[in-house]
Design brief:
four-stranded parallel β-sheet, alpha/beta
Length: 373
């Protein structure tokens, strides 16, 4: 008889089944997020152009990253990376860490977020409120290596959102964000959007949407809006994934390197958005929508408005009818002490006023003056 090694542990499988059930039950209790119709000026609405915002701020942890965290946990559980004795490690100082801490606590695992020492107390408090612990490092460039080291040291598992985001989500459907968008558009006048616009942090959301529209045979095109300094834009433009950039100053999107989860060939258009435009747009959206949104939403909406102006101009000003969709990624309430604080914004060297004026002009007349505002 040949050698046999049996590692089956009924107790581990029972714990796994319970953990998966808890996460799936949480999803079952959750309603889908709203698809909000954006109040474009009448001249554009009359031209048959519509803009929609998928409001991801209504997830229980307050952001788009709730979807990613759920997928990462199910992926890690079903691949055998997590047991009831595992410490979960992630490199994140923002929304991903908040959402992962939520799911870790749900299944009874400790969670550690590895982040720069300069992370704001407000962000740390959000993670701690979900039961997470924050591990601060002085050199932000060492966060990935430190995450691996911590996982090795404690026998934990490094979730590594930047590598696994594109594969943890079922891009064919299964209630992913792309499937949800198309289902919610079904009764609108343009149910197949001309464009979906997103930012890229891990690249997981753009990968899911880009793959889904190809799988379903939709004509929808994917635009990625990228902040200043991020590596994604020049790498995609030049076809060189080794291109590097600088750390993004727009929280949640942009990276100093092209992350493994960013799938460039499925992106149809990339647009670099000035940081001051992101901030100016997010601030003007507070007036338009009657609520604050985060800076990455400002980035995407700025790109949407330029796209909409192009759609109208190509049709000779009359418009042939089209819808555009983007994401409202999180609430601006998280940024009261930063992007909504005039002193903090001035310290970054940003002047959002001309960009706010450009958005106001667009909303009043439908005329796009862009950065010239």
């Amino acid at each position: 008889m040949g050698e046999v090694v049996d590692r089956a542990r009924p107790a581990d499988r029972a714990w796994l089944a319970r953990a998966v059930r808890l996460i799936e039950a949480d999803l079952q209790r959750s309603a889908d997020t709203h698809l909000l119709r954006f109040p474009l000026p009448g001249v554009l609405a009359d031209a048959g152009i519509d803009l929609y915002l998928k409001d991801e701020s209504t997830h229980v942890t307050g952001s788009l990253k709730h979807r990613l965290a759920r997928s990462l946990f199910l992926y890690a559980l079903c691949n055998g990376h997590l047991t009831e004795r595992t410490t979960v490690i992630e490199s994140s100082s923002g929304s991903t860490a908040v959402s992962e801490a939520y799911f870790a606590r749900m299944i009874g695992l400790p969670f550690v977020a590895v982040m720069p020492a300069g992370t704001s107390p407000q962000k740390i408090a959000l993670i701690q409120a979900q039961g997470g612990r924050c591990h601060l490092v002085d050199d932000p460039s060492t966060i990935d290596a430190e995450s691996h080291r911590l996982a090795d040291e404690c026998g934990g598992h490094y979730m590594d959102q930047f590598t696994y985001a594109e594969r943890a989500t079922d891009w064919r459907g299964n209630n992913n964000i792309a499937e949800s968008i198309f289902a919610q558009l079904a009764l609108e006048r343009h149910p197949i959007p001309a464009w979906i616009v997103v930012g890229a942090g891990t690249g997981g959301t753009s990968a899911t949407i880009g793959r889904y529209v190809r799988y379903r045979g939709h004509a929808t095109r994917l635009c990625v809006a990228d902040p200043e300094g991020s590596a994604f834009f020049p790498a995609w433009r030049d076809g060189d994934p080794t291109r590097t950039g600088t750390p993004s100053r727009i929280e949640g999107i942009g990276r100093p390197r092209v992350e493994p989860s960013f799938i460039g060939p499925i992106v149809d258009r990339m647009q670099r958005v000035p940081d001051a435009a992101s901030v100016g747009t997010m601030r003007e959206l507070a007036t338009i929508l009657g609520r604050r949104v985060g800076p990455s939403t400002g980035t995407s909406v700025w790109a949407c408005l330029e796209l909409i102006a192009e759609l109208r101009d190509r049709a000779g000003g009359s418009g042939s009818g089209a819808s555009v969709v983007t994401l409202l990624c999180d609430s601006g309430d998280r940024y009261a002490g930063t992007y909504f604080d005039d002193g903090w914004v001035a310290a970054q060297g940003w002047d959002p006023a001309p960009y706010r004026a450009a958005v106001r002009e667009f909303m009043a007349t439908g005329r796009w003056i862009g950065a010239a505002g």
